[in-house]
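quick one if you have a minute, typing this from the bus. theres a chain ive been looking at and ive put its sequence and its fold in token form underneath. please have a look and point out which stretches look like helix strand or loop to you. anything you notice is useful, everything is just below.

***
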Amino acid sequence: MTDYAIGIDLGGTKIAGALVTRTGAIAAEERLPTQREEGVEAVVDRIAACIQRLRDRADGPIAGVGIGAAGMTDSRTGVVLLASNLLWFDVPLRDLILQRMGPDSAPRIDVDKDTNAAVLGELLFGAGRGTRHLFYATVGTGVGGGMVIDGRLYHGASEGASDLGHLVLEENGVLCGCGKRGCVETLASGPAIARQAQAALQQGRASRLSALPADSITAVEVVEAAQAGDVLALEIVAAAGRHLGAALAYYVDLNNPELIVIGGGVPTAAGELFMEPVRQAIAARALPPNARTARLSLPGLGKNAGEIGAAALVWHHLEG
């Protein structure tokens, strides 16, 4: 009989759940809209409903439930400290789920930030299999990270480790949502790429992007223009990659990883147009032996990466 972990990927628009085996295989899936505008209690009800539906579809025991939330999360208490996409502050998610479902709903419930779940998913089932020193960076609406050191997920003293997006690269740069200036997130994220394209067009730079309304250009459109050979778009995508690589070079020299997996909408869409500048920046800035050791890869998990990563929270803790 197969045993399962339930993985829940909690996002601003959808709650995605899956029954996941110890090998990372998906046995069943569920999707529900998040509908955050209805408030915390309603969202928690939907998460509990998703978990229950998956329990009902299981033909074997449930080892635990893992929940990956986009935002700052205290894995020790199961409290989502800050999730801007949900408009949540200090939400005791684990306790609320237990209240809905009862203490016998699962042997364990693990709640962590989504990038920590992602790095475990890659470690156990994706591009990071066989490694023990791994960093996962995600580049999309924001820039985040998760790290595995010597085979174990690392949270830091106050659960604040791996926040790659808020390393400062430009002392007097663009104001970031965190309150600092010149963070990686202001230079390499999807919104940063779009903003840089808008500014360049307003300065009169020639580009196929000029045919679009300048104030509504998206990172997706910039990446598409780059793939078509547009010079301005290529410059912007490459600059974003170099900024990310500059930040990752610090990590490479501090923690000497075997592998850096770079996921999220931007690298997935841009591929080597983004990844090669990252690689070059690491090579230029990190100590040569460390830079040579740190391989770069796109994620190895597909469309269910969020759910598989959340389930990996359970398997990682049980096997540790």
About this structure: Residues 231-255 form the longest helix (25 residues). The mean pLDDT is 94. The chain has two domains: 4-121+303-319, 130-297.
